């Protein structure tokens, strides 16, 4: 996952947890952990953060095993790559506390379960958990938001790993088999999975609609940002500290600009997420784009956006709304055109005047 | 240099509050520690060593009393021992005193008190204070009056707090040493620095020189030297006490190194506009100075000051940096046409404050470049520009250095009033460039190879000289190994004799051009003596064939290349110290803020 995704989404997850009354947060970190640690430090909104390192990603249960020494009371378990509203967490915690449950699962009514976990309920008791169910029984989608008693950690340890991974859902199945009370609650709360980079654009849109951006005195545009009087800023744009928006630039709807981003004269940015320290050159147009930390987009570069098919490893995803994904520190010389669905790896160099499509590897150089 | 704390509450928590306060003040010194409590008789516990030693020696359940003072010490008079640890008492054990600073006339006072029968148990300057108080108590004075009369007799720099048997109050005073009061819900606090009590309250009063305070459970009364009650403003601390945690890093130093991109973003916030090609330092709006600029500082801050001097000179200004302890206004040309900039992370560095006071007396305009809002330097100077690095706990300064460099660069641009579009563009990219160094550094592997070396030499030219010196200082501080920095041209004028195959030379070679070529020439001299060479460079090909190991930095504006190179040097020292198993955040003999001259 790109740091831009993890940082932004984690911030929302932390906010939702804190608003639900959580008083301590344990963060299991692995990939790019320094970025996460340095971004959040030791606390978020005065709630202490404790970091636990999971060197090898051996499953959700394994991650929880790593936190064992820190867990001695009821805890909420939540994924760092899903945007979750307070309501869903509240529903799970309330059900957990008002029943005898050792584990409570947050569920959604969805017609399509797809590859997610499907959960069958009898009243509010979990009877079966099937990953990517194919039959047409009445499955609820498993959001991965759980409330657990500390004893569940022992169950995880006692459950044999499948394919080398300790999965939380395997432990839940074992609890159900052993006749322990595992409950589920169907919630109407906000839940957006950010499994793929382009999901972030949808998620940003949802968040801008759903979340009050002016909480704790923050406005959507940070007061230290310098906005030229002729720049046009959409009310649904989020602009972080120390950004500079030059004359005539248009920051359109559903845009999130990280700290210290510069948007040049007459550039247009719409429905895009731009990470810290990036620079968008004069007259550039970026639609449906994700721009990584410290990336440089030259003058006059165009990513017109729109539906496309995107290839990630060996799989092609159809009808994805992605202009371009430009990873951390991509250098774009200017005057380039990005065909919708282009993915450019970190530190790649795109020389002026190129037309880019498909997937470009990290540190690659592209000449026109 | 020491940390003091005092608390008056009602319950049994006083000992815990004092102990946690001392842990948070350990960055000020940690060679011995002690506490004294009134319950209502006076009990005292003190111990050589870090605060944990004191904690271990405390009886588990009998430490009681609602009123107390505590101290963590960094030795100035007398070796670290149980006897020399604070608090100190009078002959009867009725008065206990903690002190940060130096009492200059303690020898004559001690002789006088000894003549009249007082017995001393320690070698400290501080011990004269409780005995002086005792002598005034014997004449019938009440505790507060006796405290004032005693303070009247002493010369020097001090923050002093005292408690008395059967008295539910702490009395304190400050002169040239920091002291801040905390106003709590269930009691009141005093300490050398805010982190000591910020877990309990964020409402503070900064005490000025010559002010006394009487602290009780319900009130805080501040008076001047003649005893008039003063109305003090209450400030609210807006930083988060959790900022003082390690955020998952093994050491504060590594945490703070990794915070540098964010520190730079904070430092630049609202201060530069590329579009307007301007640097906007509101703090200096009414400063119009084009004469001589002098910079005074110590240690790492001095290296930042040297860098500031170079940037001012590059912009056509007259500038000169001085070790603050060597700054003598009677000898150095300084007058009302001079601007003197004091660079100090804490704003409490005694040498720097003293130099600024001399400059002030000579009529110069003074400007503090500091990290601590409301610190002595900030309050005493005519102008102040904050570096906005956030709390720095590691004794070895890292992020405050880079923030000082950038703040001085902004000040240089403001004073010289020149527009530098390329430099401004490079500044905007700087946080990301540092992030790139952090993400890609190969210093852990390089450190493993060189951790056993006899000594380390750092060389560079021009703007790399301050960083070569800083790299060597960092290496000394945390690895306890011999390290030295030189201008690379100086190498052949003596130090070359020290080179062996077991003395790596770290060469700073960036920006191409004549300077780099000359440094590479110097590197060749090193290689010819079989000393291993580690080059820090933005052009790997330029050092091929002359350097065994390369630490890469992104290419940037020549003035910012030293900032990036320095990050590699910080990491190199950190990893060498880690390989050697050193106590990185608390090197022996060193303390964070040096409040003695």
From TrEMBL, chain B:
Example of a GO biological process term: protein N-linked glycosylation
Keyword Repeat: yes
Residues making up the signal peptide according to the UniProt record: none
Protein localization: Cytoplasm
Entries under HAMAP family matching the protein: GlmS
Keyword Transferase: yes
Catalytically driven reaction(s): D-fructose 6-phosphate + L-glutamine = D-glucosamine 6-phosphate + L-glutamate
E.C. designation(s): 2.6.1.16
Key words of the record: Aminotransferase, Cytoplasm, Glutamine amidotransferase, Repeat, Transferase
Cellular component aspect of the GO annotation: cytoplasm
Single annotated GO MF: glutamine-fructose-6-phosphate transaminase (isomerizing) activity
Name of the featured protein: Glutamine--fructose-6-phosphate aminotransferase [isomerizing]
Limits of the Glutamine amidotransferase type-2 domain: 2-218
InterPro entries cross-referenced by the UniProt entry: GATase_2_dom, GFAT, GFAT_N, GlmS/AgaS_SIS, GlmS/FrlB_SIS, Ntn_hydrolases_N, SIS_dom, SIS_dom_sf
Positions of the SIS domain: 280-421, 446-587
Function recorded in the entry: Catalyzes the first step in hexosamine metabolism, converting fructose-6P into glucosamine-6P using glutamine as a nitrogen source.
Assembly and oligomerization: Homodimer.
Pfam families: GATase_6, SIS
